[in-house]
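[step 3/7] fold_predict: job queued, chain A
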Amino acid sequence: MNSIAFAQQIRKLSLEMVFRAKASHIGSALSIADILAVLYHQYLKVLPYDPRNKDRDILILSKGHACVALYAALAIKNYFDINLLKTYGENDSNFMNHISHKVDGVEFSTGSLGHGLSFGLGKALASKIKKVKKKVVVIIGDGELDEGSNWEALLFAAHHHINNLLLIVDYNNLQSLTTVDNTMNLEPMRSKFESFGCEVLEIDGHNHIDLLDSFKYSDTIMDKPTVIIAKTIKGKGVSFMENQVKWHYSSPSQSELDLALEEILYA
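[step 4/7] structure written:
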């Protein structure tokens, strides 16, 4: 399986989970499928059969509402039996509607936005103090940047030269009920991050070559954290879901699921 096929499977499994549970946030999950595919297939040092091994790299999904995409990626990497995904959203299931650390491979439960970066920063700093070679990657939503805790964490990370911290912004320009621009304009985003002391890259968040190159480039930065502004499309891969704020909260019907799976599987 290559990274393109990996992303295709993330999208398929995510759609099926959301449909089965009559859940929401499928648009948010589809926008990060390519990012997760490249991270787990080609970049992160992961140990599915020893998920707490001290030498593992760490991925924090701060936008915890997009949990189905990460659950799917972990299932594909054999962290657990893929059939457990069928319990997503059920009572007493570890596979909760926001990402849960009770699932093997999940480092931190998130849902209240603005917490993941600070947690990841702590993990990155601890690794440097312990002289453990470890990459800590945090994925946040663009709307999540409205939370001031992110900017405080970046100030600290740059001041202390936390170069093993990689922040990926899922910049799909939709949040909750409208566009990011209408909610709280973030531009000029790149210069904001640079002024905080970060190395910054802007890429197509669906181009697997660009994604991998940018991840590898972050490994060469020796004195500061790296921020990747990944320009994405909410609902990517399903034409009627793309760039539609409706799919932040809506669940697909049976006919919509069938159409979506047909598009993904035969793209």
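[step 5/7] annotate
Strands lie at 58-61, 136-141, 165-171, 174-175, 178-179, 199-204, 226-231.
DSSP finds ten helices and seven strands in the chain.
exit 0
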